[in-house]
């Protein structure tokens, strides 16, 4: 039975879980700004202690690879890679948007429509991907500016549930009767469990030395108004 430590830091949620044989056995998470740097390693310790598992008993480390917050992803991936190096364990990378869709599907097993995972980028832009109810990708991951015509072709014939922290701001724009919105948190490490177990069994591991998060867009440094004022 594989024991896999799972780390999710793509959004404001700092989430850690432990799975055994594809089943979640311990979870610790908290939502808030700038939590990852101060909380992540503490949460990892708490999750393992709660399950009575020590670091050397782990079989792999799984991490949410993005897209999402540049800073959050960097912290999560660097922590996961550090553990892999220290423990000599394989690294598993989980697509963040697919993890979210998997979470929704697991909580809504009778749902037969499409699933659109959304992560807030900025203004009316989101990182998004659309899946059918078997988690096959219908629209691949992209950075998309949402307007009233977005997803029009799919909404004309299919019910779509939009979820994630990018979905709420789109509700006022996507008003088609087939557009549904779910506000639950699916950016949670516990929703990696089945995906991580499958990757482990298939030996779908990353090269720890060269693996980088899937940022999708380049990090943009902005200046505050105070910094822009010249003396």
Q: Any idea what the radius of gyration is?
A: 18 Å
Mean pLDDT figure: 93
Query: What is the number of domains?
Result: 2
Beta-strand fraction estimate: 25-35%
Order of helices and strands: EEEHEHEHEEEHEEHH
> What share of residues is helical?
25-40%
List the strand order in the largest sheet. Answer: 3-2-1-4-5
InterPro entries: ATPase_NBD, Gcp-like_dom, T6A_TsaB
Organism: Pedobacter soli
Pfam family, one: TsaD
GO biological process, one term: tRNA threonylcarbamoyladenosine modification
Question: How are the SSEs placed, and which strands pair?
Answer:
Layout: E1 3-8, E2 13-20, E3 23-31, H1 36-51, E4 60-64, H2 70-87, E5 91-94, H3 96-107, E6 114-122, E7 125-131, E8 137-145, H4 152-155, E9 160-163, E10 179-182, H5 193-201, H6 225-228
Parallel strand pairs: 1-4, 4-5, 6-9, 9-10
Antiparallel strand pairs: 1-2, 2-3, 6-7, 7-8
Helix pairs in contact: 1-2
Pfam family, one: TsaD
Domain Gcp-like: 33-213
Protein name: tRNA threonylcarbamoyladenosine biosynthesis protein TsaB
